[in-house]
């Protein structure tokens, strides 16, 4: 615990104050010294220049030039060294300097040492290495060098000889020792261009001389540098050690790097095994055994000029510990530019005299921290709550530049005497107020109030777009920039029209046409922008498919080749296409109507009457639509009534089997919502625009721009989400007409300002509700001892808590409970999306891969396997969520709301991110099927009913009919969540599982499975289109000659057994062709008779031979996969699961099958899977094993209606996402020490969910608290108090839904957009999207009906009319229905159950 606190203080607190510098004991002295002196230089340079030189341009130029040159030098050297390590040449040399020094000190001999003594020591070195086991490198060894060394040296530099050297060293004969002595001291790695390509034995004398000369030269150089060897020898080479450290060095020597460039520390087991076999040679003397072993140094050749280079003794890991790596030239240029900008802006403020006395030093410390973060950044110093990405290094410097620029601009503006606006709302803008931000730079980074610069950019642009332009939430940086740019473009066009219309005054009897055109464009732009998503990906893909179809076709061909084409992108493009076509018609009509209404001066002539009627209408419709109906549909209306007042048809159904029925109150809700969005609020805003425009035409000021902004924001937000507009309108009228009438500017601006204030007030209420519910003393859920300790300290913290609540509401930042306790602290601002990571799903597998990808193993828990169900649930929500929200089935919703969908085994958190006009962008987070104890307690809390509670305080007097008791009503009010619906239907899969061990425990059942296996092989063989080719293939026939003989016996006792093989002959101890024909010939003949072109199928036919050979191959593959222990149940299940996955181990006898792999892939592999289904049906339909016709029909039906494959097969994911009715698989589960095989069966049906709405500020606060606790405070306790169950806040479920590794969700979906046009029920109310094709179809139908009526009135026979006009109508419009009916009639002839009929009907539904 103490070391963790010290590490947090050092790497978290101190590094945040200094910009990333701290003393790291895991690093060597060289790196720590460089970091210290570098930081002191960056701190003292601006301070000394400011104190020594006058505040002139010369001082500014000196400082900026010095910093720029310094950064250029460091970045160029760092980049060049990394390129050297990537592409340079490595030379490994053996150093004998330490050995020579040890000999000189021991014997005081001359420099000319005896060659025999040196060679004897060289002989002993590889022997000592080879005879000792190679220890695995520890994490400390992998992360950093020895801190006690004077300069860095990786253990990889002290590696044993390579494989080629070991072969030379290995003594093969009596003369091998002499050869080894000659070759030991040669350079190990020679990748020099001018080196010799080959060496022969005739050059051994010259090589020996060269080796001796190099050794003597190195000894002389080391003796000259002996005095400085203790500190910084060889640019990172550690000083030599005494004999007491020999054992440690020997262990380090054995770590053989796999790559010299990367200095990997992984050792090769194969090399170690070979090296251990070296025979032990006798030691020469006791003195040699105590001498220093020669070390190997890895040099890199740095080319300075053509033909000239220098050797660099350094490594990549040590360099990365010294300085951060910039991967390309662009990053280096950005870093140098940011360094120049920081130095320029910082020194400009110093020259202007903005800082005095101690604050000069403090500001120089801020400058130094910004500069240091561009060189060596620790992720805690930039933001300790978010992790690391490429933009971390620029965040602190970017914030510094932003604030310094604001200070400088404000300083220059305040100097101007005639500044148009010097105060806003009575608050004067003073430059010194902005200086406080720079003073608090270290502290703000310490407590994590600044996000990464990309997150801050998304947050800032999103807030501007939402509050000033009526936009929706941003999903990424590209999305934020795209949204703000299109809003500014629309605003610039509208401002031009508005300014032109208001240049000249106009009277009440005449509205300028330009102003009417402005109003029409305002409605058109607002409507179109509200219908578009903030993410331009789908729109760009649609444009790309229309403008560059060849490129799109090539991409589709690649997807078809991989057979993993996702249908979702095409569906999204079709929905976007329908929206654009509909907007073309609607915007044209809206422009004409708006132009006509505003030009008629109806708002001016009927001025007081029209506004009063519109206000009353908006309040009445809003109250009924957004308050009364949602309350009556809740599970507990007003938290007093025990059941919904407006019930759906599914409310009393136990297991609904059809789609949700459209109720009358849902039709009413949709009608009122459309009337409110498209009639009431546009009329109110147009009326206010007309009245304000008339007033503005007589006075010229900047209100024209504000009016344009207000009109765009109010219209656009009313189209997107008018849920709270009636309350905002009511507060606007009351406040500015009764409370503060003098503060009113105009109704439009008042409404605009109040919409922002009211939005913040709702956030404040949600935060206060979360705090009060979380810290309520009567429902305390202490998760640890710290929670009990912190509870009383939350009382004096209340005043600060209220201030934090107000500030976090203004800046839209989460308020997080510290370590899950009752003490709250503010976090950094985030966008509505909250999480910075981008989640994707790998289409090559059927599993969820987040930003931390989890590898799939053959035997694992079922969490990753079950993630496909959440993915299918996401696709179901993609079809229906937007329509269900428009129907009011989830209650009132706004951007950022969080819901939990709870069913029997599926529990998912749905985060609504963007709500537009006819679209919703959301993200689903699936929780574990079998969650922890805390999760189960919270699931019980949201599923248990309170209707039976009769308590009131301490007694139980009961409750009124259809009402809740006092205790139940009180407890429901002190929850951060609320049940919105109990019977919400979605398409999903129900899971049934059977234990395979139970079904195969008896030998007779295994024999039955083998029988089905062989019969399935024969079936797929007979139905293969390649069967004639296989029967005529000479290579196959030649390989199967032995199988044509009747006396051929397969006697492998590890494969064939009388216990599991029905055709086993006990007296012959094997399987013969005759026994095979006795059992399976009838089935072969029946399958052959069903072929379109029957082939010969008598006992001596090639078909029987091939069937017999494949049956032997299939059983032998099963035996091989079972490790030749098929009699054991565990081995049998293991082998069958291996074949089920498609992993076939072919024996030598069966290699003839490689003549055509379709024999395995199209015959044997599907037979394994089909046999499992047939074996499962044996327990329910025994007659299928009696008659060949029934078995044949069953296999045929299962081929078309059932998907059988392993869950790791991409076909499994494709089948699930294609909504196949029934699927079957075999799953190997290893969980808590249990090893089980389960047969999983999936049935598609309607699943019933409970919809629970959670306080979104509760979710954001708990998520932010987990980031702070796990990343900054480094709490790795899996049973920490912050994830313990808390029923009032669903703390465990919310925290477990965090992105990995903070949480442990089973599945996190990508951001998914749902469109209203894909909802099946909603289109029946309004008739679908309005487009030119829909209008033409409607007119054609009406025209045909008119023609039919004319024929009827003229006395024409009605039968002729029906045959003529009616027939043509049916042909033109009902052709898909006729095709569907024909396919249904064909299928019903062979269908076996109503379930299969329902499957085929749904399968052909796309034709409708």
Automatic annotation (TrEMBL):
GO cellular component, one term: membrane
Feature: compositional bias, Basic residues: 1392-1401
Residue stretches of biased makeup (Polar residues): 259-268, 1372-1391
Annotated transmembrane regions: 36-53, 59-77, 333-352, 358-375, 396-416, 436-461, 468-493, 513-530, 580-603, 609-629, 764-781, 801-825
Pfam family for this entry, one: Pecanex_C
Subcellular location(s) of the protein: Membrane
Low complexity bias: start-end ranges: 140-163
Superkingdom of the organism of origin: Eukaryota
Composition bias type Basic and acidic residues, residue spans: 188-222
Compositional bias annotation for Acidic residues: 223-234
Membrane topology value: Multi-pass membrane protein
Primary residence: membrane
Keyword Transmembrane helix in annotation: yes
Region Disordered, annotated ranges: 128-272, 1372-1408
Segments forming domain Pecanex C-terminal: 1096-1320
Family, similarity comment: Belongs to the pecanex family.
Protein's name in the database: Pecanex-like protein
């Amino acid at each position: 615990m103490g070391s963790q606190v010290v590490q947090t203080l050092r790497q978290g607190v101190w590094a945040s104050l200094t910009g990333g510098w701290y003393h790291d004991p895991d690093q060597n002295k060289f790196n720590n010294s460089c970091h210290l002196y570098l930081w002191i230089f960056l701190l003292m340079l601006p301070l000394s220049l400011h104190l020594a030189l006058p505040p002139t341009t010369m001082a500014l130029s000196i400082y900026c030039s010095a910093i720029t040159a310094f950064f250029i030098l460091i970045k160029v050297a760092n980049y060049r060294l990394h390129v050297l390590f990537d592409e340079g040449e490595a030379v490994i040399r053996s150093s004998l300097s330490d050995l020579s020094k040890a000999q000189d000190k021991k014997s005081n001999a001359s420099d000319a040492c005896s060659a025999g003594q040196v060679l004897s020591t060289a002989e002993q070195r590889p022997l000592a290495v080879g005879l000792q086991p190679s220890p695995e490198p520890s994490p400390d060894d992998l992360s950093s060098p020895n801190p006690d060394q004077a300069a860095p040296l990786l253990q990889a530099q002290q590696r044993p000889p390579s494989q080629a050297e070991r072969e030379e060293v290995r003594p093969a004969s009596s003369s091998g020792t002499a050869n080894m002595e000659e070759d030991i001291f040669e350079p190990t790695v020679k990748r020099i261009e001018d080196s010799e390509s080959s060496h022969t034995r005739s050059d051994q004398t010259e090589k020996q001389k060269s080796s001796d000369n190099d050794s003597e030269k190195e000894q002389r150089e080391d003796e000259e540098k002996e005095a400085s060897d203790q500190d910084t020898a060889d640019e990172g080479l550690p000083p030599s050690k005494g004999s007491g450290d020999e054992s440690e060095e020997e262990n380090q020597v054995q770590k053989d790097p796999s790559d010299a460039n990367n200095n990997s520390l992984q050792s090769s087991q194969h090399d170690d095994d070979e090296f251990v076999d070296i025979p032990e040679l006798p030691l020469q003397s006791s003195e040699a055994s105590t001498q220093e072993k020669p070390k190997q140094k890895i040099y890199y050749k740095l080319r300075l000029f053509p033909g000239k280079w220098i050797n660099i003794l350094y490594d990549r890991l040590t360099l990365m510990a010294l300085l951060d790596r910039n991967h390309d030239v662009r990053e280096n240029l950005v870093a140098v530019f940011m360094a120049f900008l920081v130095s320029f802006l910082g020194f400009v403020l110093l020259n202007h005299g903005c800082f005095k006395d101690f604050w000069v030093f403090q500001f120089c410390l801020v400058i130094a921290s910004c500069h240091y973060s561009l060189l060596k950044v620790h992720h805690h110093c930039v933001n300790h709550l978010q992790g690391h990405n490429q933009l971390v290094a620029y965040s602190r410097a970017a914030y510094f530049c932003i604030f310094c620029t604001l200070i400088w601009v404000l300083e220059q503006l305040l100097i101007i005497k005639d500044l148009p606006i010097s105060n806003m709302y009575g608050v004067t803008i003073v430059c010194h107020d902005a200086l406080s931000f720079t003073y608090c730079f270290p502290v703000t980074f310490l407590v994590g109030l600044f996000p990464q610069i990309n997150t801050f950019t998304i947050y800032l642009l999103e807030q501007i777009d939402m509050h000033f332009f009526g936009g929706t939430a941003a999903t990424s940086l590209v999305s934020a920039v795209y949204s703000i740019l299109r809003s500014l473009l629309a605003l610039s066009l509208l401002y031009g029209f508005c300014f032109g219309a208001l240049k000249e005054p106009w009277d009440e009897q005449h509205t300028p046409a330009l102003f009417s055109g402005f109003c029409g464009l305002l409605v058109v732009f607002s409507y179109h922008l509200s219908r578009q998503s903030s993410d331009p990906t789908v729109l760009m893909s649609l444009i790309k498919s229309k403008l560059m179809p060849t490129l799109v076709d090539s991409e589709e061909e690649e997807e078809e080749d991989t057979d993993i084409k996702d249908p979702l992108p095409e569906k999204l493009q079709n929905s976007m296409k329908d929206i654009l076509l509909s907007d073309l018609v609607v915007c044209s009509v809206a422009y004409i109507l708006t132009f006509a209404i505003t030009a008629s001066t109806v708002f001016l002539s009927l001025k007081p009457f029209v506004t009063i009627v519109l206000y009353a209408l908006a309040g009445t419709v809003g109250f009924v639509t957004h308050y009364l109906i949602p309350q009556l549909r809740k599970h507990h209306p007003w938290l007093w009534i025990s059941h919904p007042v407006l019930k759906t048809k599914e409310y009393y159904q136990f297991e609904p089997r059809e789609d949700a029925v459209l109720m009358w109150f849902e039709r009413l809700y949709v009608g009122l919502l459309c009337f409110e969005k498209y009639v009431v609020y546009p009329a109110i805003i147009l009326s206010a625009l007309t009245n304000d425009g008339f007033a503005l035409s007589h006075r010229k000021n900047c209100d024209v721009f504000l009016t344009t902004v207000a009109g765009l924001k109010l219209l656009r937000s009313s189209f997107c989400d008018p849920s709270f507009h009636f309350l905002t309108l009511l507060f606007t009228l009351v406040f500015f007409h009764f409370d503060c009438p003098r503060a009113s500017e105009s109704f439009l601006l008042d409404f605009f300002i109040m919409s922002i204030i009211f939005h913040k007030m709702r956030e404040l209420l949600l935060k206060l509700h979360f705090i009060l519910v979380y810290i309520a003393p009567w429902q305390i859920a202490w998760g640890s001892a710290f929670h009990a300790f912190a509870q009383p300290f939350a009382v004096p913290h209340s005043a600060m808590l209220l201030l934090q609540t107000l500030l976090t509401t203004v800046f839209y930042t989460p308020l997080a409970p510290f370590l899950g306790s009752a003490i709250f602290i503010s976090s950094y601002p985030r966008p509505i999306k909250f999480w910075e990571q981008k989640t994707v799903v790998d289409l090559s597998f059927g599993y969820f891969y987040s930003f931390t990808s989890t590898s799939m193993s053959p035997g694992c828990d079922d969490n990753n396997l079950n993630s496909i169900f959440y993915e299918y649930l996401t696709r179901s929500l993609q079809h229906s969520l937007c329509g269900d929200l428009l129907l009011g089935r989830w209650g009132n919703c706004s951007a950022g709301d969080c819901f939990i969908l709870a069913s029997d085994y599926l529990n998912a958190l749905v985060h609504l991110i963007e709500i537009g006009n006819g679209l919703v962008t959301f993200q689903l987070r699936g929780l574990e099927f079998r969650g922890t104890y805390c999760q189960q307690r919270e699931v019980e809390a949201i599923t248990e009913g309170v209707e039976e509670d009769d308590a009131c305080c301490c007694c139980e007097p009961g409750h009124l009919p259809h009402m809740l008791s006092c205790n139940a009503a009180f407890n429901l009010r002190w929850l951060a969540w609320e049940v919105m619906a109990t019977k919400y239907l979605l398409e999903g899969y129900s899971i049934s599982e059977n234990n395979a061990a139970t079904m195969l425990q008896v030998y007779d059942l295994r024999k039955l499975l083998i029988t089905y296996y062989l019969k399935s092989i024969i079936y797929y063989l007979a139905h293969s289109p390649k069967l004639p080719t296989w029967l005529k293939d000479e290579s196959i026939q030649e390989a199967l000659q032995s199988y044509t003989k009747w006396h051929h016996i397969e006697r492998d006792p590890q494969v064939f057994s009388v216990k599991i093989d029905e055709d086993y002959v006990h007296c012959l101890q094997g399987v013969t062709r005759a026994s095979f024909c006795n059992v399976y010939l009838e089935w072969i003949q029946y399958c052959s008779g069903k072929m379109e072109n029957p082939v010969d199928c008598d006992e001596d036919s090639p078909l029987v031979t091939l069937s017999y050979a494949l049956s032997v191959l299939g059983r032998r593959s099963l035996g091989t996969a079972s490790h030749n222990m098929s009699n054991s149940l565990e081995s049998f299940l293991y082998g069958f699961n291996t074949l089920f996955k498609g992993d076939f181990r072919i024996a030598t006898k069966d290699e003839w099958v490689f003549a055509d792999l379709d024999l395995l892939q199209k015959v044997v592999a599907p037979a394994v899977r089909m046999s499992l289904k047939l074996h499962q049906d044996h327990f329910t339909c025994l007659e299928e094993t009696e008659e060949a016709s029934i078995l044949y029909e069953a296999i045929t039906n299962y081929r078309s209606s059932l998907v059988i494959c392993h869950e790791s097969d991409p076909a499994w994911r494709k089948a699930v996402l294609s909504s196949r009715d029934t699927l079957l698989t075999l799953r190997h589960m290893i969980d808590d020490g249990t090893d089980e095989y389960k047969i999983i069966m999936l049935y598609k049906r309607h699943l019933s969910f409970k919809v629970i709405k959670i306080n979104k500020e509760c979710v954001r606060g708990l998520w932010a608290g987990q980031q702070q606790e796990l990343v900054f405070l480094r709490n790795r306790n899996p049973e920490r108090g912050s994830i313990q169950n808390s029923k009032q806040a669903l703390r465990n479920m919310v925290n477990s839904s965090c992105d990995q590794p903070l949480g442990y969700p089973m599945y996190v979906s990508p951001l998914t957009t749902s469109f209203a046009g894909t909802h099946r029920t909603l289109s029946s109310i309004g008739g679908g999207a309005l487009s030119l094709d829909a209008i033409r179809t409607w007119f054609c139908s009406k025209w045909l009906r008119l023609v039919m009526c004319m024929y009827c009135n003229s006395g024409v026979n009605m039968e002729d009319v029906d045959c003529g006009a009616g027939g043509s109508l049916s042909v033109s419009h009902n052709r898909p229905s006729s095709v569907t009916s024909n396919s249904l009639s064909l299928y019903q002839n062979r269908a076996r159950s109503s379930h299969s009929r329902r499957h085929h009907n749904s399968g052909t539904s796309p034709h409708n």
